[in-house]
Amino acid sequence: MLRDKLNEALKDAMRARDMGSVGTIRLILAKLKEVDIASRTEANREGVADDKILSMMQGMIKQRNESIVLYEKGNRADLADKEKAEIAVIERFLPRQMDDAAVQAAVTDAIAASGAKSIKDMGGVMAALKAKYAGQMDFAKASAVVKKTLAG
To answer: Which residues have a Cβ under 8 Å from the Cβ of 4 and sit 6 or more positions away?
Structure first.
């Protein structure tokens, strides 16, 4: 479904002559093709599922945020602005991000559901969060909340 949405958005951007969006959507589709090829097996020729696509796009945003920091340190505002524009296009395809209160509630629920008692159980909690909230949560922030909650 997300794959179809991306292809339709590319066509719409091309019709509107929005070259910034066209370029970014093409980057997303190229990365998606790369991920599809990497995950192919003899038995499975299908593309990756939507949750993997969401994770891939989260990774693309993370890369661009890292680039923005470097560009701003190097006084290259033009390149930083380009990265910010690409992030805006990618975010159009992601579900709305959870706020801090929602992240805290999700972490509390995941800890209760997994029966986690100490920091040693953090991996199971994070796995449960990633399975349930792919593309909706910043897992770096969630990790800090889990660590703080389990540490006590």
So the answer is: none
Interval 71-123: pLDDT, tens: 999 999 999 999 999 999 999 998 887 888 888 888 888 888 888 788 888 88
CATH fold for domain 100-151 = Arc Repressor Mutant, subunit A (1.10.10)
- CA–CA distance, 53 with 29 (Å, rounded to integer): 10
Please choose, from the candidates 150, 143, 118, the residue with its C-alpha nearest in 3D space to the C-alpha of residue 128: 143
Q: Alpha helix (H) ranges present in the chain?
A: 2-15, 19-39, 50-73, 77-91, 100-114, 122-132, 139-151
Query: HSE-up of 50 (CA within 13 Å, CB side)?
Result: 13
First to last CA, the chain: 41
Superfamily of domain 2-91: Uncharacterised protein YqeY/AIM41, N-terminal domain (1.10.1510.10)
Closest CA to 27 of 90, 77, 75, 120: 90
| DSSP conformational letter for 94 | S
Measuring CA to CA, which residue among 91, 84, 47 is closest to residue 68?
84
Q: Is the pLDDT of residue 12 over 90?
A: yes
